[in-house]
From TrEMBL:
Pathway: Protein modification; protein ubiquitination. Gene3D superfamilies: Zinc/RING finger domain, C3HC4 (zinc finger). This is E3 ubiquitin-protein ligase RNF181. Belongs to the RNF181 family. It is an enzyme of class 2 (transferase). One of its GO terms (biological process) is protein ubiquitination. Directly interacts with ITGA2B and, as a result, with integrin ITGA2B/ITGB3. There is no evidence that integrin ITGA2B/ITGB3 is an endogenous substrate for RNF181-directed ubiquitination. One of its GO terms (molecular function) is ubiquitin protein ligase activity. The keyword Transferase applies. Residues 141-168 are annotated as: Disordered. Residues 91-132 form the RING-type domain. The lineage of its organism: Eukaryota, Metazoa, Chordata, Craniata, Vertebrata. InterPro entries: Znf_RING, Znf_RING/FYVE/PHD.
Amino acid sequence: MASYFDEHDCEPSDPDQEARTNMLLELARWMRGAGRWRQAPGVWSLFNSMDFEDLGLVVDWDHHLPPPAAKAVVENLPRTVIRGSQSELKCPVCLLEFEEEETAIEMPCHHFFHSNCILPWLSKTNSCPLCRHELPTDDDTYEEHRRDKARKQQQKHRLENLHGAMYT
């Protein structure tokens, strides 16, 4: 009878490797936790040079669903009472028209939703289902990813403007 590992064409896990991975993860969390990486830039550059994706410690947010919207943000979304001409608006999720004097949740992008439609959505992901406008999350790694992405877009925009200014 073949062993489990032979049957599934894999190797047993290495407890030493798992221990090293866990120690690295804990050290990275500690360094990041109180801004200690600013106090020890040499150590942080060591972490930056390591390939955490190979260790399975980094989520590739460009290929994963974003985390849920922050609970405090969702709770503080404005509630709007539908009046007059607004009653012709439809909820983009269920496609039903809003009733006069019905309360709807307004997203920062100014889209209106029934609370029964948008709240379950925001408990799974942080964006407007219509335009993908993102709300803040409680996930620090995702928020860091968003900041990095915004910085890269800003840098690209600046380079494009600089290039355009050189030839005008």
